[in-house]
Amino acid sequence: MVRALYCCMAGADVSLLPPGVGSSSSSLWDLMGNAMVMTQYVRLTPDMQSKQGAVWNRVPCYLRDWEMQVHFKIHGQGKKNLNGDGFAIWYTKDRMQPGPVFGSKDNFVGLGVFVDTYPNEEKQQERVFPYISAMVSNGSLTYDHNRDGRPTELGGCTAMVRNLNHDTFLVIRYVKRRLTIMIDIDGKHEWRDCIDMAGVHLPRGYFFGTSSVTGDLSDNHDIISLKLYQLTVERSPAEEKRDKEVFLPVVDNMKLPGVEAPLEPMSGLALFLIVFFSLVALVFAIVIGVIVYNKWQQQSRKRFY
Ligand SMILES: [Ca+2]
Hints:
Blueprint: E1 2-10, E2 29-33, E3 36-37, E4 42-45, E5 52-57, E6 66-75, E7 86-92, E8 98-101, E9 109-116, E10 131-138, E11 155-158, E12 168-175, E13 178-184, E14 192-197, E15 200-201, E16 207-213, E17 220-232, H1 237-242, E18 250-251, H2 268-304
Antiparallel strand pairs: 1-17, 2-5, 3-4, 4-17, 5-16, 6-12, 6-17, 7-9, 7-16, 9-10, 10-11, 12-13, 13-14, 15-18
The structure holds calcium ion.
Calcium ion (CA) binds near residues 116 and 118.
InterPro entries: ConA-like_dom_sf, Intracellular_Lectin-GPT, Lectin_leg
Membrane topology: Single-pass type I membrane protein; Single-pass membrane protein
Organism: Pelodiscus sinensis (Chinese softshell turtle)
């Protein structure tokens, strides 16, 4: 597998610029809401109530296999669970659309990865927050904020990422229809598995972005850098066939409410057989009908004489 830096965003000198570009007029990134460019990072939200901010790439991504490395920092005054709400990383069809899912629109089309710092659902004894989860939607799914997205999540892991003195990273890797999310949050420069799922179909040409929201509770949600890598992998002919272009995000063998597996288009032979046997049955029914009608007429004539 060959990895090449494709596009990035970083605070400091190259704020919001892809590598090799030195003019702010050609920025490939847009800010939204309360997001601010600082010297070393982009602050999606400050540690204040009811803020929301986002940063989105302007260029649709046509990479087939890719990796997005997110260097982030979440910190604030809130103690224990009195902080929120976290941030999301997006690969979606729409961009720059504010809404209720970590500051971005609901019923999105694409992938959302959530770093959720506040447990909204009360009965969360078995789940320790902050919690990272992922969701793939074709637009029909709603993120259940009151249940921290549990009904629609693909998987997840606990990640103690607040108020740390060392760097914290998250990586989303998409290779051969396999979605892998790993974290490096312990200051040991080691990737730890969080989510690993095969059979994830994501169309090309969507946008990368990240968004965050605060409510009654708040945190600073800082993005230090976003680095998109192009991955080059070899595929067997069978994998080429399997990984053909898709037009709606879908996950294999995933039974989610509102997600119907797309019906296979009927083959020509099946259609021919259905029409053929329907015609045979119709002719058979007409012949039987005529015979019964003739018998009935003969019998009624007999009754007259
Ligand atoms: Ca939550």
